[in-house]
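Friendly challenge for the regulars: who can give me the structure tokens for this chain first? No prize, just bragging rights.
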Amino acid sequence: MKKLFILSLFMLTLACQQKNNIQKNVIVTDKHTFSKPNLAVVKHLDLDINVNFETQSISGKASWQIDNVSKGKEIIFDENTLTITKITLGDEEKETQFKLGKEVELHGRPLHITIEPNTTKVNIYYHTNKGAVALQWLTPQQTADKNKPFLFSQGESIWSRTWIPCQDSPGIRFTYNAKVTVPKDLMAVMSAINPQQKNDTGIYTFKQDKAIPSYLMAIAVGDIEFKSIDNRTGVYAEPSVLKKAAWEFAELGKMVAAAEKLYGPYRWGRYDVLVLPPSFPYGGMENPNLTFLTPGVIAGDRSLTSLLAHELGHSWSGNLVTNATWDDIWLNEGFTTYVEHRIGEAIFGKKESEMQDVLTRKVLDDSMLEFGITNPDTRLKVDLAGRNPDDGISEIPYEKGYNFLKVIEQAVGREKFDIFIRNYFDAHAFKSITTEDFIAYLNENLIKNDKVLADKIKAEDWIYKPGIPTNIVPSVSKDFNAIDLIQKSWRKTGVKGLSQKIKSTTEKQHFIDYLPEDITPKEMADIDAEFNFTKDGNFVIKRQWFVPAMRSQYTIAYPAIEQFMIATSRTGSLMTLYKQMVKTSEGKIWAKKILEKAKSGYHATTIQSVESLLK
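First reply, four minutes later:
Bragging rights claimed.
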């Protein structure tokens, strides 16, 4: 009883804290920023920059409108590898003093700027340098068309400070305008409302009137063209990719409509996607108005477009309602994975949704096995103090977060849970919140001190304890059950004709995932002859197929494995393969050789992850 009373008191205290935070506009302490936003905080950015491909640098001025909350004499920004040349105050550009603090690994340095009690504007003149992790500069040869250079940024988690001096925390939101000057034969796009064709000046202007955190600042420059899908969706890509991409994403408008039906109006105006060159390190990045996508999603049969449902989902969970610190990343990714599955069910049907559920559960189980079920990093609320916040972006916040929300859905019913989530998005729109804020909202608006319901949900177990709680909802697919029966018999009956029974990407993925541990090279060759996985598989199929290929020493696939690993920089997929390689001494040697060949095309964060593994 004492424990229950303490927990109830804890939940009540959190609810009071949440209300007080909203009333006082208190910003939660973030361990990964040097800024002290409770003393002085940014509100709006006017960015005027020049993109120089010859020097591979961005230079210009970041003019920040600020709120000097404490009326003090200092504001602190984050910077990492930038060169700060001059700082002025106000429209009159009165030069002021600044100093850089001690460098912290991965985090860069604090930029201390002297201000006055009535200062409302700070102008920072700067340029980027070769060490800017957020920026990847591609030569023409590294692009799809191989004609012109390309630049793209990746700000999540704390890398925006390597290309813009900012208060780099997901808990700090601001609006922005930008003027970007690029070579006249190229076009610039940003995480804002974008131009739809090149101009003859090379000067592009942007406006983002919705307050966003710094990690969602994004830019891309290249030989980019646009094709509309409907009145508010469209695709940007290199010319040779554009037509294929527009066909692949033809259902994008339907996805937006399906999401709106579930969770309320899309609040960002346009929803467009940009297909990047292969060196992009993720499947997708949910930059507002313009999702950045890997070209690996273009399969030619629309079989991988569920990735779009995830990135679109971030328009509600992540961009609209954001994790206040990187310890709370599950609020972004767990909610978005849930939204992704619901959009997918609406677009692709119940059977596909059930299969995706089973795949998701396997990813969670495999992740738990890799981490260890007592590892504190398998909690939803993690502690990333003193660490690279990218360490928190594992499969755990995605899949464990999704399964936690499924538990709540089952406990209260889908109809009631849909209303709760929609109200949750509305109540916290354009705000950054903590896990504790969510718990308080959950208790106040759904659990309402119902002990029986609280015991069904077990929120504390899911959020603050490692491992998988016992009340996880089982994942079942009749279609997968049929494939499981095939797995038990194909060694006796042979594989001929199986490709007519196992057709979709999802079904093939499940079949590959459960191939016997002791499968022989001869059996792999027979399956390959039936399905042609090595040559004709899409991105996801190849990623899955190459794991048993290496495990069984199916050497016929080795050239294709090497080609695949050199051609992409999608970190998660590559790590799956590199982890398989390093299980043997020969594989580790091979892995190092591939890394050396591929490094020039990999993103900096991908290189960091692979090199850490190989050490």
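Confidence is low (pLDDT under 50) at residues 1-26. Residues 2-24 form the longest helix (23 residues). Your move, everyone else.
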